[in-house]
Amino acid sequence: MSVDVNMSVTGNSPEALNVQQKLSSALGLLGVSIMVLSGFNIQFQPKIVWVSLSLIMVFAGIFWYSKVSYGHMTEGIKNDRVYFKSLTNRGFWAYILGLVLTGFYIVLYFYPSWIGLSSDGENTGVVALFDPLSQAISGNAASQWFVYGTLYTTAIVGFGIKFLWKYRHNRYQRLRTFSVMFFQLGFAFLIPELMSRLNGDNFSLPYYNFVNIWPLNYYNFEQYRVDQYINAGNVGIGLLIFGVLSILIITPILTYKYGKRWYCSWVCGCGGLAETAGDSFRHLSDKSQSSWKLERWLVHIVVVFVVIMTTAVVYSYLNTDKYWLSGSAFLISVASLLTIVFTWTMVYKREELQNDAKYAAIGFFVVILSLLGLHFSGLIDKVFLFEAETLRSTYGFVIGAIFSGVVGVGFYPIFGNRVWCRFGCPMAAILGFQQRLFSKFRITTNGGQCISCGNCTTYCEMGIDVRAYAQKGENIVRSSCVGCGICASVCPRGVLKLENDTPVGRINSKEILLGNDVDLMDLVNQNK
Amino acid sequence: MKQEHIVIIGNGISGVTLARHIRKLSNQRITLISSESEHFFSRTALMYVYMGHMKWNHLKPYEDGFWKKNKIDIKQAYVSAVDHKNKELQLESGEAFPYDKLVIACGSKSNKFGWPGQDLKGVLGLYSKQDLESLEVHAPNKEACKRAVIVGGGLIGIELAEMLATRNIPVTLLVRESHFWNNVLPDEEAKLIDRHIREHHIDLRLETNLEEISADDIGRVKAIKIKETGEVLECDFVGLTPGVLPNIDFLKSSGIELNRGVLVNRNLETSVEGVYAIGDCAEQRQPIGNRPSIEAVWYTGRMMGETLAQTLCGNPREYKPGHWFNSAKFFDIEYQTYGWVFNQPKEGQTDFYWEHTDGKKCIHIQYEIESGIFKGINTFGIRLRHEVFDRWLTEKATVDEVIKNLKSANFDPEFFKSYEKEIQNKFQHTLKTT
């Protein structure tokens, strides 16, 4: 046996669950099995009792499991045996779970009728099981999205409790987890459902989650939604304006102050799921340089795609006399805005950019050219020979469904919990660009105290090689950092700290390793 | 400068830091020789592999392609002797390996004090990759290892205890001092850690020495005997962790002047021209300040590497470590120290101690009575900023200034409770009553 192979799985160590862990897992799975069985059209009556029972059993199972797993231990980092467990070390159970989740997403997105969604007439199966719950909240029958939303919220709140137990020594982690649980339960789940109660014959609002900001919700400015906003009078117009302001004004300000973490690991639903249900898989992210390269290309391509797609979709319906904003005016203003951002970046922030600059520059350039091309070529609603609607549905399929759902969550147990956030999310890319350029946020290293142990890098869900910075005493200002703070939590020497400070001196490429005499450090820095 | 071939024995933090910095500064040919592992790994993190926090690959701070890309040659071989007259190394394979300049950075090995049975199967230190592999054989789980005994109340001992505890192996920890690490820590902190060790169900035996280790029929450890009480403890594994000593047996025939370690001057030169020593195996002829002449600390190894790189690239420098600092983690409690805190205040000095009611956080400051000049701080469970303490020590700040501005040195994560007020109040109170 050699450690090179992988000592940690040869250890024949206590992977087995204890009795209480087995019982609690069984309880949770029993709750899930009620849903599964109703998927096979076993009629549980009365439904409201069974759906409640099912959800309560899932919650209780997770709660109990967390208590017996962490409750008896002293407060502190508890990653013991993570790499011995089949589920968390890409073993047999990881692949099984990955297949189950992936299968669930495929059915959900593409074959909702399999779980009982009926477009005309009564729902059957799982969707029908959730009908009474949906009736109680929004007054409507359930859809597959209601089922999904309920399960999603259950996962965040349930595994949020597990997270709280595991990290109960750490107030940053506790507050952050309360925050994602709150935003998921309130803003992403209950408020939109309750809002749809207001809808009637003369008044109709689209399903609106305030914290789901364009371009993450790439469909926010589609015609049907914009029409609904406008038809809903002042409230609707308010929401529409909020949607625009949130991306142009609100997010840049918050990102300036706190880094993109205020969104990605305190508010966002995708981030919320990753941090709670996905916490057990955070160490599986790929830290290699090549994956970093892939990440930068992919994520920027998605941004370009979403900008062109949204612009084309909006342009395609603005190009009538129906709205006060004309298609041409819209295109020109988008192009101008992008040009201003691009110029400002290049003139004032050049030295703060390295690789990101290239990708962002290429992206902007492509977008501006296509916009101008669109406008002057006379191709009304065609972009690169595609109808705007085709482009939109392609984006919806490839990015919205496959990337963010099937791959992003389905592959948690294989590639880690932030695959989508890291490689695909256009919102994360834009916030990351802002974070790199003008945020006060950084992770600092405590002088010369790093021992290069690698806990920080291993547990970074975004695949950042934190150690590479820390062992040089460099601040970490990577655009992909979501500020989850786990690196600082797992560091056995307390070397890392998430800070919001003045932007001056945030990016220091010098090696500052205290402990040596000052002259030597000057020399080391000069010769870099 | 003509291209020289610099050969470094040892690929630990000292040797690797040296190699990296030479590469930054020059185009010299560099070879790192080690028999322990092909690539540099972080020794400090070995424990996390056994605990299942990380896998072996996570221990390597650089991707495997790094060395080739930076033109640092790697040779996996065991050096059996140094022939400085011919400027070549004798490798165990029989090969003679030439060098222009030689750096000895071969680190330490575990201390053994001649206990009967100390070389039995199942008796180990915890220092190298091979030790860890061996540990995996002898103590893989609680079925194969029904009890482990650890001898030595220092940093490696408690890490080993923590490791075994994660696999639910019952551990007895024999500590010679009256409290854990009491030869370094003042009583208050040592007791605090005593409690924390016991909270993790470790059978901590204080003021207890090992008498002998006995074997079963096939030469494996069977039991140990305690000197003070004569008690015999059955066990399947014995960890010997009473510190480390330089791993320099292979140099005995080399003519390089040795004591406990390889003797070096302030420029890290040995008695032989063109041969240097850094890290755990180097012994200063004159100790620097309060530092021991052999510093087996990760950070000092790194600093020596940085210093010697300058010397070897035409800018001769003395090894001048700045203010002392160190850190560790005892189970769940983080520890940092800046400046000097001794287990008893030195002549003309006194101390100030504050402990939180939960018994898991404390600070301990020592300072000069007459002038009030701050000499050092121990902190447990509260993270403090290195930079600020470094400055205070340089500026010879007084204890009043330190206590008053303690907040500016806080390095705890956001939203953590802070204890400066409480500490300040206690300090004021102490001043009044003494």
From TrEMBL, chain A:
PROSITE patterns: 4FE4S_FER_1 (PS00198), 4FE4S_FER_2 (PS51379). Pfam families: Fer4_5, Fer4_9. The chain crosses the membrane at residues 23-42, 48-70, 91-111, 145-165, 177-195, 235-256, 297-318, 324-347, 359-380, 395-415. Residues 441-469, 472-501 form the 4Fe-4S ferredoxin-type domain. It comes from the Bacteria. Keywords: 4Fe-4S, Electron transport, Iron, Iron-sulfur, Membrane, Metal-binding, Transmembrane, Transmembrane helix, Transport. One of its GO terms (cellular component) is plasma membrane. InterPro entries: 4Fe4S_Fe-S-bd (IPR017896), 4Fe4S_Fe_S_CS (IPR017900), Electron_Trans/Redox (IPR051684). One of its GO terms (molecular function) is 4 iron, 4 sulfur cluster binding. This is Membrane-associated 4Fe-4S ferredoxin NapH-like protein. It comes from Psychroflexus torquis (strain ATCC 700755 / CIP 106069 / ACAM 623).
TrEMBL record, chain B:
Residues 5-286 form the FAD/NAD(P)-binding domain. Its cofactor is FAD. The keyword Flavoprotein applies. Pfam families: Pyr_redox_2. The keyword ATP-binding does not apply. One of its GO terms (molecular function) is oxidoreductase activity. Keywords: FAD, Flavoprotein. Belongs to the FAD-dependent oxidoreductase family. This is Nitrite reductase, NAD(P)H subunit NirB. It comes from Psychroflexus torquis (strain ATCC 700755 / CIP 106069 / ACAM 623).
